[in-house]
Design goal:
The chain has 243 residues and is of the alpha/beta class. It folds into two domains: 1-78 and 150-160 and 176-243, P-loop containing nucleotide triphosphate hydrolases (Rossmann fold); 87-148, no CATH class. 33% of the residues lie in helices and 26% in strands. The protein has nine helices and nine strands. The chain has helices at 43-50, 72-75, 94-102, 111-117, 133-145, 163-178, 190-196, 214-219, 226-236; strands at 3-14, 17-28, 32-37, 58-63, 79-82, 151-155, 182-186, 199-204, 207-212. The strands form two sheets. The protein has a six-stranded mixed sheet with strand order 5-6-7-3-8-9. It has a three-stranded antiparallel sheet with strand order 2-1-4, with helices on one face. It starts with a strand and ends in a 7-residue tail after the last helix.
Length: 243
């Protein structure tokens, strides 16, 4: 499989504080990769550096063989991002926002099909401001998929959704994965991680404390389920070690 995202020795400091230290990540085409960690572990900074939103202090980064800072315009014709919180114009309608997004790209997906796939067809003429939290989250995922990207970054993709809606989104994303879409995601839902992720990295204080499959993480821990395993890595393991 081709390497889609490659990060080597990433480091980011703010003043005298090291937020991300010596991270190396490799994600293959069609893989779902999960970046996990407690709040403040360095997930957001890592993603912002990978996307070129922030400049790293050390290390090399490439997505689809391109530098996220030097090749920014070309890169973002093939890479899309869904943030957990987004702000749009007051009173803009769902279909208007989808059309505006579509106009930015050469070969966008048919947003009407995406609205149907994610259960928002009946809300196409509703103001975005009137959508429920879960509906807004589904819309943000649709907007990330409209560009027909080769790589998509998803931040807490099912926050605010009920169990059935979350599972429907999982099914849709797994179908997109089969078509070769590479997905890089963050999540605090361990059942979601178990369902979607081929491999994961768990961060603690900006350092990788585990990388591999969920099964491997469990096997190397004193627990038999992933939720307890994750807590052990992210919050308890190495508490008394100098990391």
């Amino acid at each position: 499989m081709n390497e889609t995202i490659k990060v080597e020795n990433l480091k980011k400091e703010y003043g005298n504080t090291i937020v991300v230290n010596d991270l190396s990540i490799s994600v293959k085409k069609g893989e779902v990769y999960g970046l996990l960690g407690a709040n403040g572990a360095g997930k957001s900074t890592t993603i912002e550096c990978i996307l070129g939103i922030r400049k790293s202090d050390n290390g090399t980064i490439s997505i689809l063989g391109m530098n996220p800072i030097c090749d920014r315009k070309k890169l973002f014709e093939n890479v899309s991002v869904q943030f957990q919180e987004s702000t749009y114009q007051d009173k803009i309608l769902v279909y208007e926002l989808c059309e505006e997004t579509s106009c930015l790209y050469k070969a966008p997906k048919d947003y009407t099909l995406l609205l149907k796939q994610f259960g928002l067809s009946e809300k196409s003429k509703a103001p975005v401001s009137e959508l429920s939290g879960g509906q807004r989250q589904r819309l943000f995922i649709i907007l990330a998929l409209i560009p027909n990207p080769k790589v998509v970054f998803l931040d807490e993709l099912t926050t605010g959704l009920d169990t059935m809606a979350r599972r429907e989104i999982w099914t849709s994303l797994l179908e997109l994965k089969k078509d070769g879409l590479t997905i890089f995601l963050t999540s605090h839902f361990m059942d979601e991680v178990e369902t979607l992720c081929d491999r994961i990295m768990i961060l603690k204080n900006g350092i990788s404390v585990f990388e591999g499959t969920v099964s491997e993480a469990i096997a190397l821990s004193p627990f038999s389920n992933f939720e307890d395993t994750y807590v052990w890595y992210a919050e308890e393991k190495n508490n008394n070690e100098n990391i």
